[in-house]
Amino acid sequence: MVRRRRHAAPAPTSAPPLPSGAEKTARVRAMFDTIAPRYDLMNRLMTFGLDQAWRRGAVAALALPADALVLDLACGTGDLSRLALRRGYRVVGADLSAGMLAANGAATPLVEADGGSLPFADGAFEGLVCGYALRNFTDLAATLDECARVLRPGGRLAVLEVDAPTSRLWRAGYDVWFNKAVPALGGAISDRDAYRYLPRSVAYLPPAAGLRRLLLGAGFSAVGIRPLAGGLSQLVVATRAGAP
Ligand SMILES: C[S@@+](CC[C@H](N)C(=O)[O-])C[C@H]1O[C@@H](n2cnc3c(N)ncnc32)[C@H](O)[C@@H]1O
Predict the structure, then answer these.
(1) How many angstroms is it from 11 CA to the middle of ligand 1?
(2) What is the three-state SS of the chain?
């Protein structure tokens, strides 16, 4: 006898839908204002300190002459800016959250701005770094268009983002860590809701092929996307198309 499997109704979920549009911008800004004071500590704990090595790799990937002018978009507390300064670049930081900018200790000019509408002239920068912010942008395509606009032709882009490991074992550990341990840790030393949102916000990220398409459409060439630490993170590099 063939037993029919009854399809259970989907389990009720307590997680609210992810916000979009102006609501997303307002919530992301408020969330980063709230977590700014403990942001660096949480980063080190969440990544076991690996994030700094990934940031060094991103800054090195720019491969620009010393003295090049680099925008650190969504600079937050300034980790990437500090590393870029150390390589001899001149750096400007821009971020949506006044709280993150207030916690930014890097010796750079800081601008409160939305990545989707940057207050900089066309071709103002030779390089652009952006750490762990793609999934927070309200309109990713518009923001990548802005990145291309403010870079001069031949200018370099290096972006870090979270990723998801492809190995099953690695993925299982990652899921437990980011979905269970990180929100608990966030609740203990920062803000539980914000660190619950972190794993959920990965849903905003397009897959690599989609991200590559967006970058090419925005005016970038030589797009490279490479996983770091077995897919815990990813580094995206690209060159602003056009003759320098
Ligand atoms: C996860 S933090 C990363 C901070 C820093 N880049 C780093 O690597 O540690 C994301 C940052 O993106 C900023 N952000 C989010 N949406 C933004 C937007 N639309 N425009 C500019 N910055 C934004 C947040 O305020 C926050 O500082």
Answers:
(1) 33
(2) CCCCCCCCCCCCCCCCCCCCHHHHHHHHHHHHHHHHHHHHHHHHHHHCCHHHHHHHHHHHHHCCCCCCEEEEECCCCCHHHHHHHHCCCEEEEEECCHHHHHCCCCCCCEEECECCECCCCCCCEEEEEEECCHHHCCCHHHHHHHHHHHEEEEEEEEEEEECCCCCHHHHHHHHHHHHHHHHHHHHHHCCHHHHHHHHHHHHHCCCHHHHHHHHHHHCEEEEEEEEEHHHCEEEEEEEECCCC
Q: What is the mean pLDDT of the chain?
A: 92
Return the ligand 1 atom nearest residue 55 CA: 8
Q: Which residue has the higher pLDDT, 110 or 2?
A: 110
pTM over 0.85: yes
* Closest approach atom of ligand 1 to CA 138: 19
**Residues having CB within 6 Å of any atom of ligand 1:** 28, 32, 74-76, 79-80, 95-97, 100, 114-116, 131-133, 136-138
